[in-house]
Specification:
Elements (H helix, E strand, L loop, with lengths): L2 E5 L6 E5 L7 H7 L5 E6 L1 H17 L3 E6 L9 H13 L7 E6 L1 H13 L5 E6 L2 H7 L4 E6 L2 E8 L4 E4 L9 H17 L2 H9 L11 H21 L14 H10 L7 H18 L5 H13 L12 H7 L13 E6 L2 E5 L4 H10 L5
Parallel strand pairs: 2-9, 3-4, 3-5, 5-6, 6-9
Antiparallel strand pairs: 1-2, 7-8, 10-11
Length: about 375
Amino acid sequence: MASIITVNLPQHSYDIMIVPGSLGRLGEYMANLKLGNKVLLISNPIIFKHYGQKVINSLESEGFKVAHQILPAGEQYKNPNSIQKIYDVALANHLERSSTMIALGGGVIGDMTGFASATWLRGIHFIQVPTSLLAMVDAAIGGKTGVNHVQGKNLIGAFHQPDLVLIDPYILRTLPSREFRAGMAEIIKYGIIWDTELFARLEKSKNLSQLWHIKSELMDFILQYSCQAKVDIVSKDEKETGLRTILNYGHTIGHAVESLTGYTQLTHGEATAIGMFAAGEIAIKLGMWTKENSQRQNALIEKAGLKTKLPDSLNISKIIDALQKDKKVKEGKVRFILPTQIGGVEITDRVPTTAIYEVLSSMRTRD
């Protein structure tokens, strides 16, 4: 079932189109936006092999001149060196301010393409064509772009809204199971921080770990309601000066874990699941929410096939040190997003280090 969600922003509004089978019509949709005819398509080898030529054919059929750049897959490649490669191709193909960069891939490709488009000629057009569940419901929406520093995730970045987000749910049929589970972590996050109806629908599903376990009607609901939740929050706080911070639920500890494992041991969603579990346990310790609600959250994480045990290789003291490099640190204090109820969270910088240490220590012994 097709749906269109409009992101209403003061300076730059755009549509999120959720249309099954729409990938081959990208050129048509872009032609309607009246963009310049030079396009740079950014993807990774796996995605480009599956869908690259289909997208190029669609663009060329509408008169676009298409160049492409293939970047390695993986969070460890989301760095300034990859951005330089995009710049080199942009220069070689004489991209202008009317030109467009298209991200065909998951969150990594989307973040890098967005950052490159934000900084090339001080900002050119940008289209998101997310190919992973996580990118469809989260990373492709809202205009956050960036790359990692060796000591921290997404420390280098810019806000740069796309001109269009095109979601073709049929692409999920070729998504590896592990990446599907990673996306479910972000969907569960929306249920905790914002949308009780979404949470309730997820609770009714017996298994959330694979696409084929989920009925098509529920998958349609998940995509639409997750995207709408992100849009609702971003529309109220585009530049993350307040409310939008809640989208980082599970990401404070999650980002630290990703960084310390070199972005190679865990997917972003797996690290977020660990972070959500930890945030729930910290909230219990601080008397902010109940064990019953924590168990409901953790049951969804388990249904999605996600683990909540810390990697054995990690030193807990190093995790706590890494929290100081988080983007949400303000005046030297680490800000946590902690749950208070299903559908509600609170931002606080009053989390004792002892509580963090105790929770992380307990997570070493989990199955």
